[in-house]
Amino acid sequence: MSPARLRVSCLLLVTLATLIHLVGGSVAWQAAGIVALLLYLMTLKGQLTRMAKGLLCVAGVLTLLALWRSPTPGQLLFEASGRFAFFATFVVALSMLRLPAYRSRLVRRCGQSMLLQPPSRRYPILSLGSALFGIILNIGVLNLFAAMIEKSNTLSAAQGRGWVREARQRRMMLALLRGFSLAPLISPMGIGVAVVLSSLPQITWPQLAPYILGAAALIFMAGWAVDYFTGPHPPANKTYVTPSLRPLAQFSVLLIGIVALVFSIAWLLELRLPIAALLGAPTGALLWLAWQRRRLGYGGLPAAITAVHRQLPWLLSPSANEIVVLGAAGYLGHVCVGLVDTQQLAPLLAVLDPLGTLNAVLAMLMVVGLAQIGVNPIVTVTLLVGLLPTLGIEGLTPELIGASLMVGWALALMSSPMTASMLILSRFTGVTATRIGYRWNGRFLVAAIPLLALWFGWSPF
């Protein structure tokens, strides 16, 4: 068996065992998933980035500390390892949706339709479109759409005006970046929702939705306003024919169907939404693949299963770093919360308690600020979402905590030059990540952050 196939086999065993545990509650299957996870991590030698290796090293140090300081180290480390396995399963489940998406003619037609819109409509359509596609393609939407932008944004398309071409590049790339950053915020299947709801079992997505969707609307409107007022606005080409948005409407219907499938599974099986997403995403992906191959007989299902079997190594092998970073962050968060004695935090509580709901704003800014020095938002959010509810600050509800951290995560993706999203755009544009994050996006951040601070500081919900 090749190393790639061995890694995929271990990862699939992690996924299967974790799903059976989450649905049936079997501790034996959870243990099997953790053992398979350890085997998977052992196969990743030479495959991980510096950040992923660093998080694993910190996890190892914290494990030793837990063995020394925790009164029940076995239970704490077992539960933390289960969190690691859960997030690994989450990455695998949502990655399945990329298989039919990358082969879809509808996806390509949507991309072309969005990019060829007139300037007055390009920002909102491209931003909303990249958010919708980001729900399914995750960071793959940046590679896909950035390549399309570079291909379509030629000097001839700008009628020989170099400054117009540069302005279009900046405006379209920023619309793409901001839309992609909203995907984990607006999607009930997003990783942000999974991190928050798995750490705060006392709340549900409908309780969280008013906070995060309202914040997403403020971010979108602030980005659109900044794009419009910073221009430029060259004269329109009156002979230009605006392409139809029908493909985007069709894709929206498809996406609504997948989300409805997830909510239906949650309702029928009485599961929490993150667990239902682990079942609904692969099911939706298989049905989408079968529809693409329906002319091959039996509703296309046998051909879809064959395609999944053949392409899983190609699909999952590049996900190693994503799995390790997300899983290790979940592991660290659980262990840290288990080791923290809340009584020792009394001096900190005396400072934070009078601030009330403004602590949500501080939490949001902490996620954004630490991202600027290279601390991945996944790590910060996982730690804070486990720690803040234990402080019992008056007015700081679990919904407000979760929403503010998710918004901080989105803003970090839009601003930090050390995130993968910013590095991808830098590679396509030839512009440094710091220039994109601070110069190109500076006015937007100056406008959006005070609005969001007001939203969380004086939220109507």
Name some characteristics of this structure.
globular, mainly alpha, 77% helix, 22 helices, 461 residues
Protein model, in words:
It is a single chain. The protein has 461 residues and is mostly helical. The protein has helices at residues 3-24, 27-42, 50-69, 73-95, 98-102, 105-115, 119-137, 140-152, 162-186, 191-199, 205-230, 246-268, 273-292, 301-316, 320-339, 346-352, 358-372, 377-391, 398-415, 420-429, 433-440, 442-457. Helix 7 (119-137) crosses helix 9 (162-186), helix 9 runs antiparallel to helix 11 and helix 9 runs antiparallel to helix 19. The radius of gyration is 22 Å and the shape is globular. The model has no long low-confidence stretch (mean pLDDT 85).
